[in-house]
Write a structure and sequence with these properties.
alpha/beta; eight-stranded parallel beta barrel; 12 helices; 4-hydroxy-tetrahydrodipicolinate synthase activity
Length: 295
């Protein structure tokens, strides 16, 4: 049976900001508590939804420490350390180990478009920088490259490379990755049942900012063999999937607006180049969450 190294439901959580643009650590910790109170086994800090391309090494360390202090005694805390600079990623991984992360999320370098040899060099460098468990992250829509199977195979020589967050849309590869020994997590909320059907173990979510309990119940239903119930929950959440992830201005923007609608945050501020949802976009988000019975 495939291991479940980070639990079954994690959220790539948003990072809150003050009005002056600095990181709001108190509000960020409040997001983490909200997530763990609502079905999450763990959280990922400083991922794309955490606006990691705009945060500094020091800010990432402060966020990780604040979230560890808030929920580290009852949830897994994974640090996003992937950037498009190998040296920068190594620095983030070493900082994560010092602060006490339970693992790291390592995305392919974005924009640079390295070949598979470059990907392996990058991954090897970061993986070898610490002993922390590693979840590789394949999201070609953001990185413009695909982690090929031979690269996954090569990375298995590192015992602590244990999982994959897959947002490639190539669901059938899940079975092959599972055979290699990876625990595969869906990187797309709407595709979670498909990944589970091919042998995946769970989800790294964005929609769980608003639907954690329901997503946890869906995954639990699948794991216990009640596939009809899992499908029922999935179907009930489709309006939320569409509202949070099915619009051009999605991710951190929709996650923060959802948290504002739920009263977890008192604002929906993001850093440029992102722009906060306007009133019409918030109304559409509210309608989708309402249709899913979440507000």
């Amino acid at each position: 049976m495939t291991s479940v190294p980070f639990g079954r439901l994690l959220t790539a959580m948003a990072t809150a900001f003050h009005e002056d643009g600095t990181v709001d650590l108190e509000a960020t910790a409040r997001i983490a508590v909200h997530l763990v109170d609502h079905g999450n086994d763990g959280v990922v800090v400083s991922g794309t939804t955490g606006e990691s391309p705009t945060t500094s090494v020091a800010e990432d360390g402060h966020v990780l420490r604040a979230v560890k202090d808030a929920v580290g005694d009852r949830a897994v805390v994974v640090a996003g350390v992937g950037t498009n600079s190998t040296a920068h990623s190594v620095e983030l991984a070493q900082q994560a180990a010092k602060v006490g992360a339970d693992g790291v999320l390592l995305v392919s370098p974005y924009y640079n478009k390295p070949g598979q040899v470059g990907l392996r060099h990058h991954f090897d460098s970061v993986v070898e920088a610490t002993d922390l468990p590693v979840m590789l992250y394949d999201v070609p829509g953001r990185t413009a490259s695909l982690i090929e199977l031979e690269t996954y195979e090569a990375m298995r020589r590192h015992d602590h490379v244990v999982a994959v967050k897959d947002a490639s849309g190539l669901l059938a590869r899940t079975a092959l990755l599972t055979d290699m020994g990876y625990a595969v997590y869906s990187g797309d909320d709407v595709n979670t049942l498909g990944y589970l059907a091919y042998g995946g173990v769970g989800l790294v979510s964005v929609v769980a900012h608003a639907a954690g309990d329901r997503l946890a119940s869906m995954i639990d239903a699948w794991a216990r063999g009640d596939h009809a119930e899992a499908l029922r929950v999935h179907t009930s959440l489709v309006p939320a999937f569409d509202a949070v992830m099915g619009v051009p201005n999605y991710g951190a923007t929709t996650a923060k607006a959802a948290l504002e609608l739920l009263g977890v945050l008192d604002n929906r501020r993001v850093r440029g180049p992102l722009v906060a949802l306007d009133d019409d976009e918030v109304a559409a988000l509210r309608a989708g969450l309402a249709a899913a019975g979440l507000i």
